[in-house]
Amino acid sequence: MIAFQKPKLSFWQLWNMSFGFFGIQFGFALQNANTSRIFSTLGASADDLPLFWLAAPITGLLVQPVIGYLSDNTWHPFWGRRRPFFFMGAVLASIALFLMPNSTVLWMAVAVLWLMDASINISMEPFRAFVGDKLNSSQQTAGFAMQTFFIGCGAVIASLLPTIFSDGFGVSNISVNGLIPDSVRYSFYIGGFIFLMSVMWTVFTTKEFPPESLERFKEEQKNSKGLGKAIVEILGGFAKMPKTMIQLAFVQFFTWIALFAMWIYTTSAVADNVFGTTDAHSSAFQEAGNWVGTMFAVYNGVSALAAFLLPLLAKATSRKFVHLICLVIGGISLASIFLITQKELLILPMIGVGVAWASILTMPYSILAGALPSHKMGYYMGVFNFFIVIPQIVSGLVLGFFTQHFFAGHTVKTIMLGGFCMILAGILTLFVKDEAIKTVPIVPSLATV
Fold first, then answer.
1. Count of domains observed in the chain
2. 10 Å Cβ neighbour count for 107?
3. Distance (Å, rounded) from C-alpha 154 to C-alpha 32?
4. Which of 44, 54, 358, 415 would be 39's cystine partner, CB 3.0–4.6 Å?
5. Using CA of residue 33, residue 36, residue 37, residue 39, what is the dihedral sign?
6. What CATH number is given to the structural domain containing 245?
7. pLDDT given for residue 262 in this prediction
8. Confidence label for 442 from pLDDT (cuts 50, 70 and 90)
9. Number of continuous H segments (helices) and E segments (strands) in the chain
10. What DSSP string describes 329-381?
11. Is 2 in a helix, a strand, or coil?
12. Domain of residue 225, residue span
């Protein structure tokens, strides 16, 4: 595959174009660490949690390829190609983050999760294609690593916010009359504000390259108008997926089953296995929820640090090898939670999970970017996320059954199953073909940043 050589960007240009992920991860981290806690507080049983979580992957399944397709076929002299979607998604996600902790009944929280996840995806999906648009092959791994750094930093702070409010500022961490604790509510308010401000930073500090042939692009836009043709193009792209993308799909499938199990069940598992309670309205359960935030902050903090090491390791070995090792480390770490009954020791497996998370957010996208046609980068990045949301949907449908009928309701065993899935994903990485793309210089007029 031949691509045009793009100009090499400076550290601060990489920083600016990736900074929006700091805010985006505030949204995802608050969602991942607190959604099960909110659902449980509003009356959801542990067996039903995976079904309520289905809102997240289903919205991703619907939103991501559509947004990718639309951003591929968008160009504005000021807003560019991807940035209109950054902006719209940020506004909607911020509104959802303010609404979520004010849910008073379970159905309302589930409905807001649909809005929140869809909105975050509208912002996030074009960010992946953004790296492919702006960076040449030699900087793509560094670009995704910079995104991973901001994902880690944002998630560390966001995951700790309920603990910071309750322990540092004396804000109530107790559910009163079955409502969401104030510590969680204030955390979501802060998250909504930071989400919006961070994405706006990228929107207004980063410019985009115009299409290589603007006249041809405008002509293609005219020819591609119409909902029917858009749907045909979106669905038709599945039959033309690069071989590397298909191979990575199997890796992603088992990886994200593991992650979904962790996000759904860590709060209930820690509450049961370490704090000795399954009562969602007890102070011990809410304390477990705060501790899970600390655990998630650790793995995200480790991922932020590891993000800068992974490109160096990949250069010395290969991207495949790095991803294999990281996933195996993460899988073993996740499975080991089953053996731990002291809360402080739960920090140790989170270090291993953080190593895996850094690679999950970097290596598959770096490998994939080199196998995609540049004019369909957004669309295929959206399709690639099918292999993130499909395993989450499968998890939502079967993990509750496994937990109830095979693990006697002990969700910590479901997390252990997730660990084994992540190890399998690492082994499947051996079958992925990874080729760097060849490049040729672009014309000088496209080198303006």
1. 1
2. 10
3. 13
4. 44
5. positive
6. 1.20.1250.20
7. 95
8. very low
9. 18, 2
10. HHHHHHHHGGG--SGGGGHHHHHHHHHHHHHHTTHHHHHHHTTS-GGGHHHHH
11. strand
12. 2-446
